[in-house]
Design brief:
The complex is a heterodimer. Chain A is α+β, with helices and mostly antiparallel strands. Chain A contains 2 helices and 5 strands; from the N terminus they run βαβαβββ. Classes of the chains: A alpha+beta, B alpha+beta.
């Protein structure tokens, strides 16, 4: 299935892209996606699906927009 | 008294007199510094009801025990006065060389009283204080003024200045320092202007009293390096505060079109990635290794130093998505000496009011060129600029026709760049901020969206707001240091008690700090009550449009949703209960006594009832 991934802040420079469509296997979880695109494990991050928080074990669906961001704390 | 100089410099511009005073150890231990010192002095010395722009108001510069000591990130200065924008307690902090210089000159506090008979700047060099003419730069912007002062006093001098906005008493004029540093959103620059005070220049050469200077030197230098390493490892400085723009856009929390919208397809054009790519220079505060001032060339070719709040309010909130144009608006605000947040919010309100037909005008969302002209008119108080210079609330009161509902402010101060259309915790944070809506007190929005159900109005949100107010609006404002190493890089809070104890020789824990924070928040509320004896809880509400279902997003993550007024009121009550404040949001007499505010409560009771 196809999802849209948007990287935010310094994570862009970690994974080497800021935004793209990617193909992932069915039943891929949010946590597994981070491994697939090589987000460094030690990085605290927030994952949202279509603008809402998503838990690591939740499975993604075709057409999802996934944003992966460091944990900002508000300037 | 190690850690504190114990000295106050009091200058009177009317009489051109200078007094060096001392403060007691009891005062130091009770109020610690910065915001604590400024608040207590304003409480003790200001008569309630005075005109904030009259000679009876006092402009205060206040520092804390770790301010100016080399350690992460101690270059901040607190400026405070009764606010001309809100009528309540007002303050702000900004990075400045004044921090170290004023302490080295031997003072933790500068109190400026009266009004000069002609434009003046105060020059402090250790024990010498001079009142010098500033006629030559009156009417000039902050950059010209700083360059003029640099030529006279050298680039290493500490300088606080105002631009035309402060001179012409714009109610949200700020105090400026260094390349792009600004502070004092609720009109602290106008208070300087009202005194004919163009600038304060400070040079100090004495050692700052410390219990263990050698220990602090080693600790501070080592920790500055460690913070720098963490920053490098995480890459935070690549986009600094502006990284959050893209996140706000994803989760529908970006201010767009006077906060009527929460996200926009063009937001990427002004995000942190684009800003980093356009970077031509980077600036920061003294004693900082994670410099956040990303600088680009604006449309006219000036260097413009941007952060998230500047971009959010002068970009998406005005529907301006050309980064160099956002840079131009920011440069003009910095040069005139306007608060970028209130300037962006007030211009957006004006465009919204025209859009809604409550007033006729030629300004539209997205029109950056007209926005530039309007800023100039506001700085000179010409035409509609006279009203723009007074902020969104006064403008709405003038326009009428229900427009006050969408003046995006609390207590008169405009909301910073987070859209609270459907974030109850962040709405509570803005609404209970003790100087009006400001993000510096408590920023709960990532916690709220990621760790709680967004739609919850539960106690976890009220508790988090208080926890963050104690740290951000308390600790960092009274020891006086920048919160960024802690908040952005996870630098442990315990380090700040370590610095505090090393310079003072005390043995305080974080719990000791929280008691001071709660005392300060209690007295700030009593300050408001003394000015507004009819205080009620609706003064701790977000703008009415936040509760208006017709303002809901029609698509996206929060489509169809707005804040529920009844539930918000319940959340506010939870907050009051946790603080042991009454139903108006005022400390009870018992709470005031427990906070060490018995004397202040007795004074407050002359003006209004305490429960």
């Amino acid at each position: 299935m196809k999802i849209h991934v948007k990287m935010i802040g310094p994570l862009i420079y970690d994974v080497g892209f800021s935004e793209k469509e990617i193909e992932i296997p069915e039943r891929t979880t949010a946590e597994r996606l981070l491994e697939l695109i090589s987000v460094p494990k030690q990085r605290p991050r927030i994952v949202t699906r279509n603008g809402k928080a998503v838990a690591p074990h939740e499975e993604l669906a075709d057409g999802d927009r996934i944003a992966i961001s460091p944990i900002y704390s508000g300037g | 008294m190690n850690g504190w100089t114990g000295n106050i410099l009091r200058v009177n511009l009317s009489t051109k007199s200078v007094k060096k005073e001392t403060y007691s150890e009891e005062f130091a231990l009770k109020w610690v510094g910065g915001r604590g010192f400024a608040l207590k002095i304003l409480w003790d010395e200001l008569k309630p009801g005075i005109d904030p722009l009259g000679p009876d108001n006092k402009f205060i510069v206040a520092l804390g025990p770790i301010a100016g000591i080399p350690a992460p990130n101690t270059g901040k200065t607190v400026v405070a006065a009764k606010s001309p924008l809100t009528g309540g307690y007002g303050d702000g902090n900004l990075g400045s060389r004044v921090t170290e210089h004023l302490r080295r000159a031997g003072y933790d506090i500068l109190i400026v009283e009266g009004k000069a008979d002609a434009p003046t700047y105060i020059h402090i060099e250790d024990d010498k204080v001079n009142f010098l003419p500033a006629q030559e730069v009156w009417g000039k912007g902050c950059y010209d003024t700083m360059n003029w002062l640099y030529k006279k006093h050298g680039k290493a001098a500490g300088i606080l200045t105002i631009g035309q906005a402060g001179e012409n008493l714009s109610l949200y004029a700020v105090v400026r320092s260094m390349e792009g540093r600004a502070g004092g959103r609720p009109g602290m620059g106008a208070v300087m202007g009202s005194k004919n005070l163009k600038a304060v220049v400070v040079k100090g050469t004495k050692p700052i009293p410390q219990a263990d200077p050698q220990g602090m030197k080693t600790l501070g230098a080592g920790d500055l390096r460690k913070v720098q390493e963490i920053d490098k490892k995480t890459g935070w400085s690549k986009q600094s505060t502006t990284g959050v723009l893209a996140w706000c856009n994803e989760v529908a929390a970006l201010p767009v079109r006077n906060m009527r919208k929460t996200h926009h397809p063009d937001a990427w054009k002004v995000d942190g990635e684009r800003l980093n790519a356009a970077r031509v220079a980077t600036y920061g505060c003294p004693n900082c290794t994670m410099r956040c001032g990303i600088t680009i060339h604006d449309r006219e070719g000036h260097e413009s130093e941007l952060d998230y709040e500047n971009i959010g309010m002068l970009g998406p909130n005005l529907e301006v998505f050309d980064l160099d144009q956002v840079g131009s608006l920011n440069y003009l605000c910095d040069d005139y000496g306007f608060d970028t947040i209130s300037a962006g919010a007030t211009l957006a309100f004006y465009a919204d009011a025209i859009d809604h037909g409550v007033v006729s005008g030629d300004f539209k969302f997205g029109d950056a060129e007209r926005a530039k002209q309007l800023l100039g008119m506001a700085a000179r108080r010409e035409g509609i600029g006279d009203l723009i210079a007074q902020g969104s609330l006064r403008m709405a009161r003038k326009f009428g026709k229900g427009s006050e509902a969408y003046a995006m402010q609390v207590k008169g101060l405009e909301l910073s760049a987070y859209n609270v259309k459907f974030t109850p915790g962040m709405a509570l944070s803005f609404a209970t901020s003790p100087i009006g809506a400001h993000h510096k007190e408590a920023w709960v929005i990532t916690f709220e969206i990621n760790q709680t159900p967004r739609e919850s109005y539960g106690p976890e949100k009220a508790a988090k707001v208080i926890e963050l107010q104690r740290i951000r609006g308390g600790l960092f404002e009274f020891i006086v240091a920048c919160r960024f190493p802690w908040i952005e890089l996870g630098w442990p809070l315990d380090n700040y008690s370590k610095y505090f104890n090393t310079v003072t020789g005390l043995n305080w824990t974080l719990d000791d700090f929280w008691k001071v924070s709660d005392r300060i928040y209690g007295l700030m509320k009593l300050f408001w009550l003394r000015e507004f004896p009819d205080w009620n809880r609706t003064m701790d509400y977000p703008p009415p449009v936040c509760f208006d279902p017709s303002n809901a997003d029609t698509e996206g993550p929060i489509a169809g949703k707005v804040l529920d007024e009844k539930k918000y009121d319940g959340l506010l009550q939870l907050y009051y209960d946790m603080r042991k404040w009454d139903r108006r949001g005022i400390p009870t007499r018992k709470t005031a006594d427990a906070l060490g505010l018995s004397q202040e409560a007795a004074v407050a009771e002359k003006y209004a009832r305490l429960e």
